[in-house]
Amino acid sequence: RYAELLEKNRRYLWNPFTQMKEYLDDEPVIVERGEGVKLIDVNGREYYDGNASVWLNVHGHNRRELNEAITEQLGKIAHSTLLGAANVPALELAERLVQLAPDGLNKVFYSDSGAEAVEIALKMAFLYWKHRGRPEKRLFLGMTNAYHGDTVGAVSVGGIDLFHASFDALLFETEKVPYPYTYRYPGSEEECVEACLEALRRKLEEKADVLAALIVEPIVQGAGGIITMPPGFLKAVSDLCKQYDVLWIADEVATGFGRTGRMFACEHEGVTPDLMALGKKITGGYLPVAATLATDEIYDAFYGDYAECKTFFHGHSYTGNPLGCAVALANLDLYEREDLITHVQEVAEHTARELARFYELPHVGDIRQRGLMIGIELVRDKETKEPYPWEEAIGVKVCRRARDLGLITRPLDNVITFLPPLAVRKEETTEMLSILYQAIAEVTGR
Ligand code: LLP
Asked: Edge-to-edge, what's the strand order for the sheet holding 407-408?
């Protein structure tokens, strides 16, 4: 059976973010089902889902309540359009999202992936200024090392050269400011923060007249290497944007819905962005639903007579899908019923204690954690922080070994990521981390 399916993969399937030449020769896992925090492949082998199926699974796989929510909705209707009409679950979910989101974000615009939620935020910001009679405010400001998805607009505001540089000629022009990557800053944390904020202040001073918005991954930069912001940084960024009359967009696709130990990462600093992109865990990791939340001020700028042509001309066929919205509602019910945010905080504390011993390993340079969003940066030399060269694929090797030992996760270059499903139990994280420890020790040396 496995051989047969692998042959189909070889013949027909092109996997995302995957070098097919290596993948096909590396006995890839072919998943058949899931149970709790485990994935089970077609050979019956079990693996811990150490990255929550790319950062989205919340309550574990095959949760009865979520399965039932989908079946129940399926008995009514699978899909109807939101273009010029509405459906029940999409309306109920919009209300819930507004209740949960930071104060001031009162309007929900749906889409189907995180990248789309970002595209929509960018287009809204762009048109907002146009409708306000300031069309020259059309430039976007992004952060170094940022990741906002893989569609062309999202790539334009991204800052990971490895993923993004090759598309250069396709992208629209953007400005970049440095993200506070304190581990790799030649100076103290305070100096790093000060330098980054000063660079932002200068950029705003110089370009506020032509800038539409800044986009930022609040509290933790994800695909850039799980890089955590020092406390106070996000608040300062938000204040600066307000001061210079530039909108700011929080990309909470990865951090939203409890990943960092608060419902939304913005809550850590008590800030409200002008636009917020959500995706991933919104459905508990079940179906593709994403959303862009906007303030009334932005919504109102589009509000007008048909003839004025201020309609937001954007919309995907499956937007506001009733099955997706129904499972999202059941997902949010479970957050409440199981007090999931408190659970995340408790498991995160436990995990932090377990992670401390990783520093004993000679090639663990830095461990970064907010809630259950964890990155372990491997270095060739701990003293000088010399990175492993890309060609050595050290992260790939560590994750490959972890897989043999029964845990699936992905590397971000030399950073090993650990983002388990949020409902993971303490004992399970202990087992998962002991696999990771062994894999790192075996591949990099003790
Ligand atoms: N924004 C942020 C902050 C994200 O982390 C992501 C996806 C997106 C937007 C895009 O959402 P999507 O379109 O995928 O629904 N490529 C890396 C992992 C990226 C993590 C996914 N983040 C890898 O190769 O492992």
From this structure: 31-35, 38-41, 46-49, 407-408
- Whole-number pLDDT of residue 414: 97
**pLDDT of amino acid 424:** 98
- On whether the CB atoms of residues 144 and 179 are closer than 8 A, the answer is yes
Strand 31-35 to strand 38-41: parallel, antiparallel, or no bridges (unpaired)? Answer: antiparallel
Q: Whose CA is nearest to atom 21 of ligand 1?
A: 54
> If the chain, 446 residues long, is cut into consecutive pieces of 10 residues, what is the mean pLDDT of each piece?
97 96 95 98 98 98 98 98 97 98 98 98 98 98 97 95 86 97 97 98 98 98 98 98 98 98 98 98 98 98 95 96 98 98 98 98 98 98 96 96 98 97 98 98 94
Phi, psi values for residue 283, rounded to 5°: -105, 15
CA of 320 to the centre of ligand 1 (A): 20
Distance of CA 105 from the midpoint of ligand 1 (Å): 23
Residue 6 CA to residue 15 CA, distance in Å, equals: 12
Please tell me the residue having the least CA distance from ligand 1 atom 5: 254
CB 267 within 8 A of CB 103: no
SS3 297: helix
Nearest atom in ligand 1 to the alpha carbon of residue 255 is 3
Which residues contact ligand 1 via a Cβ below 6 A? 17, 54-55, 113-115, 118, 147-149, 217, 222-223, 251, 253-254, 279, 410
Distance from chain centroid for Cα 70: 24
Domains annotated for the chain, with CATH where assigned, are 2-59+339-444 (3.90.1150.10), 68-337 (3.40.640.10)
Distance 328 CA to ligand 1 centre (A): 19
Cβ 140 vs Cβ 210: under 8 Å:
no
- DSSP per-residue codes, 150-201: SSHHHHHT---HHHHGGGGGGSPPEEEE----GGGSSS-HHHHHHHHHHHHH
ipTM computed for the complex? 0.98
Cα(114) to ligand 1 centroid in Å equals 7
Residue 147 CA to ligand 1 center (angstroms) comes to 7
Residue with tokens 């089970």: 40
d(CA 352, CA 45) in angstroms, rounded, equals 29
User: Which ligand 1 atom lies nearest to the CA of residue 149?
Assistant: 10
**C-alpha distance from residue 443 to each of 305, 345, 401 (Å):** 64, 31, 8
- pLDDT of the residue at 165: 81
Alpha carbon distance 115, 41 (integer Å): 29
